[in-house]
From TrEMBL:
Regions crossing the membrane: none
Pfam families listed in its UniProt record: Polysacc_deac_1 (PF01522)
Name of this protein: NodB homology domain-containing protein
InterPro entries found in the cross-reference section: Glyco_hydro/deAcase_b/a-brl, NODB_dom, Polysacc_deacetylase_ArnD
Domain of life: Bacteria
Residue span(s) of domain NodB homology: 1-292
GO BP field: carbohydrate metabolic process
Molecular-function annotations in GO: hydrolase activity, acting on carbon-nitrogen (but not peptide) bonds
Amino acid sequence: MEVYLTFDDGIQSGTEEVLKVLKANTVNATFFLTGLFTGYEFKRDWKKSAQVLKDIYLYHAIGNHSFSHANEYYTSYYKDGLLINNEGKRRTVTEDFLLNKHQLNNYLASICTPTTINHDFLLAANQQTQLARLPGRNVWRCGIKSSHTTNCNRPICSTDESDTKQGADELFNTGYQIFGWHKEWHMQFDFSSETRRYQQQRIATGQMDYSSSLHTNPDWDMYSPEHNEKDRLTEDFLTVADKILEMKNEGKVILLMHDRAFRKSPDNKFKNEAQKLSKLIHQLKAHKVTFKTLDHYYKTKQTVSIL
């Protein structure tokens, strides 16, 4: 049985802790990175963030998870695009993913040997297939491309998420393999609620500036004691392991997680939160599970094209 560990929304608080666990357990994973949050981390601590991104580049797989994460406006993001200034200008889904690719590659070029970074694609060092995941949606466009359909064990587009069709089709047709997930390690989403409240307050008081990312998607200090309890796991590792092993006959399981759920905290309650991930890996290894990155989901490689 193959399990694909995937982590969304990095680089952010918790990414470093996740990488340490993966290294200790000799497991590779796929990181769906978001440019805005990565940028916040680089502004906070360039040296640490550079090492985190370099480790992902050298030892794991990179997926494009958009630049903005839709600023939590998922419905309008997929319908009309992302509002980016006070005059009503919008950025399309495809443009948002393109911006993310450019920013992440610029960071990589400043960290690694520039000639090793192909700016036409967003790929880790040993990766040949471009990967993407749409923010806020479990949508799939993957498999070997043909004129009629795709070879995937999920529908081309989930019927209850058809608002993503145009954006997903554009990304797939430009070379991305778009993966959703089979199982999720559930957690709270307090920071999303905090962001929406912050946006609503600014709109209500006439202080919203849509051209400012700090207004539309604030930079929360997730290591701050006041935020210790937020965005924490709501399931234990045994529950998650059971959910995965229930799909043993399927042969392949993609698990969705979020880096920040595993971040440490100054208090004892969340001091070793990342060890829950280590325990899950040990439990699955005991059942002869093998771990792979999503660029190996299909044995036949799809030729990438430029976005």
